[in-house]
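Before a colleague's protein record goes any further, I have to sign it off. What it holds is a sequence and that sequence's fold in token form. Would you go through it and say whether the fold makes sense for this chain? The record follows directly below this note.
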Amino acid sequence: MFAAYAARIDRDQPLNGLELGERPEPEARPGWTTVTVKAASLNHHDLWSLRGVGITEESFPMILGCDAAGVDEDGNEVVLHSVIGESGHGVGPKERPTILTERYQGTFAEKVTVPVWNVLPKPKELSFEEAACLPTAWLTAYRMLFTNGGVRPGDTVLVQGAGGGVATAAIVLAKAAGLRVYATSRDKAKRARALELGADEVFESGARLPTRVDAVMETVGAATWSHSVKSLRPGGTLVISGATSGTNPPSGELAHIFFRQLKVVGSTMGSKDELEDLLSFCALTGVRPVIDSVLPLDRAREGFEKMAGGDLFGKVVLTV
């Protein structure tokens, strides 16, 4: 079957390790099901895999891709939850969860095999392309806002780095849930797009805000960390799920954190139950993932180049 896969690690030029070509079809195993992939979406996790983060050379060649929507062996339209436990059957309380492609072949292929536990029904209201955007970036944003951020309707939230998959999702979900949304970006066009998606006000990165906020959704990391901390009201919450600009900010802003009694919460992905809630939320409210572009699988390299260069707004989707 045709697939996009990591053939080798290159930490400096990750796309040098990306190959497109034939790979063996997945083998059946007890308790697992094979899904015919209709659409899959790119995540920064795929680039990190090419850099050797969370994976070793012994696992290569590894088909990339965490997210997908498709059709299972019984003809049902499904969405995959990409967090898999050590046993491959759910995630037990003492198990170390892994993201698909850290141990198991991924979704950038004609077929993928996953535990039956990891398959959810696709709402009929969502297309395959839309559904494929939800299990990583949109689920991450959902958990950041509503589980770890603890925000409620009427609160004010700052989303750093408008344009990225998680940040875009956070803007749309926050607005749909009745929050006041501030968003930042270095790029004027991305700020304008954030307004179109529902942000109440947009600002250049690092700009002073009209008011301090109840919560900050942080995925940029070092470049925006100080601004995120200083933008919070006393007792506010900073939720961080990534650091695309690096993990070592010039200042940790410790004085601001303890004097204002701020909460800093790490957040990664989300649970199967949260994905089910997110699917229902989108189906019932009409909220839809923001898609930057849709490409056939054999043009996957173009999608990786867009993501690596930051030349996108929303998700890149690959169709099979």
